[in-house]
Amino acid sequence: PPPYPAGMRTAFFFAILASAAGLPRDGHPTGPGHRIHHIRKQRANERRRRLEQREHVAKVQDYLASPEAAAQHTKLLDEVKKMNVSERIAAALVKVIEETESHEVHAEFGRRLSAAPGAPPPTPPPFFPHAWDAAELGYLDTHFSDAAGSKGGTLQYMIDTVWIITAALLCFFLQAGFGLLEAGALRAKNAKNIMLKNLMDACIGGLVYYCFGYAICYGGASRPDGIDGNAFSGGGLFKSTEAHDGIWFGVDVGMDTGGWFRTTSNYWMLIDVEEDEYYIFLFQYVFAATIATIVSGAVAERIQFRGYLIYSFFLTGFIYPFAAHWTWDPNGFINSWGICDYAGGNAVHALSGCAAWMGAKALGPRIGRFVEGTSKSLVTVNFKPVELAQHNVPMMCLGLFILWLGFIPFIGGSACYVNFQLGRLCVMTTLSGCSGGCVALAWGYMTEKHASLEQAMTGVLAAMVGICSSCGCTTIWAAFWIIAPISVLAYRFGLWFNIYFCGKFLGGPVDDPLGASALHYWPGVWSMIACGLLSDPDIWDATYGIEFSGRTTKVEDLTLDDFSGIFYGGNGMQLAYQLLSVVVITLYGLASCFLLFYGMKLCGTLRVPEADELEGLDATHHGGLAYTDTDVHIVPAGLRLRKKKADMDATKDGSESPEGTESHEA
Known about the structure:
Oligomer: single chain
Low-confidence stretches: 1-28, 116-152, 221-227, 237-264, 631-644, 655-666
């Protein structure tokens, strides 16, 4: 076959090179926002190419309607008639030849115009030109077709779609893992309440993220200049003005108020999201739903169900989307600093840790969690913590394994496409969990003098949270030997902080039944810090590059030393920006969740009555206990034998109970 044209060979070569290097085809850094931006840029190029194609077709049609083309047609017809065939066959031959030649004329026009954009229209070639290279015609046909873009045409797009949808399904299974872990770690009288809250996290999360969360995160190209939102929020709506100064909350707030709001590119409810972006929405929805589920364990056993629905609505639909936009959208101000938060150690885990801590603080401790007395752990406090027993530790362990499974695609799929990081990230996630479990088991031996299953489970989770940010720029050995073990210690520090530090200096201890705030905030913060200490310059350069406009240093003056970890010869600038982004997200999370939880407390929709808490939320709010038999309900206090309905009716009527029947209240 004839060789491919030089331009096609060059484009193909660089496409393979970019794929091997793990970069999107337009050279943008890794991340969901950048991947979305890349897809939308492809879409804009497709529209531009289709417009060029229409212009080319119009020029070709003008030529075919010209006297020169008519003369060529007459000449062609005469030559066919000389073949001594019937007029019907001659007309058919002419039609076939003309259609073929029209395509070749069109292709030649496209090739010449593409080679010299802006040049005068080329002279149309005569009929019966030389045999055009088949590869050229195929390339041009692809160049001017929808299949050339991201819309269902490329092998890379199909691979990305299959992988990210698979990752999203496995991450969705995290909801089951959280539910089993939380329900097993709490008392049986609240098991149904816990599982219902996890179910509604997925349902309400999907509702609000579909309606407006995705638009706030990654709202589309809603301005004529093609900018996707601004440094604060995504776009989606703007006014009919010429001055588009900035899109805030998805709405242009330019000073030139030239008309009512109009929707030229609306990402609310996915209205203008095209098919090639749906798979990214699915994965990002799973991320968003995780936020509310994490907080569920911190407010368990005493929050009103309607209060839970309210905070799940606002946390998933508003609080998290803004943080995600700042961190991962190419226009977000934190993203412009060049920070590494590959899988959400800051935007997901640290933010949810702040929400969990504020929710538990606003609710106050569970009844019986702290009793009078004195205890000491570095500081002396005037109360004693009481561990409230878990009702099903094997259920907790099953939930842990599901979470471990889900964490692997959670981190591996965070780029939202298949890149060179994928295999390394999956291995790093798995080994970090192994390291954290071993370190936590050793900690349990030292502190509790026995092998503790509960300690080992929390160690696995803390270690995987601890690499969510740093996985994008650190090595596997650093994650296994340094980051994961310190993540376990960070979690232990968080538990001490909640009980003793808060009890001494912040008005009272924070009762977090699952330790969610300690498990997600402190390892998440440590993961951000680890980027500034252990960022490998080679991995950073291949993943992110060094062109970030939000730093105080000019883009042209930035070097890899500005992004490398201190232990890799960095100058400390990366650590400074990592810490700055942690401060921003922490203050934002605490402030927004303070308004949310204390606002509900002020309105009386936060905590259940004391009698309901003692009886259990399953019985008082959800129609009955989770564990039932015909006559036996298992509750934490012991065994309760209930009478049959006939006996209860007899008691109400004042008659005696049947002989041999007893009733015992636990």
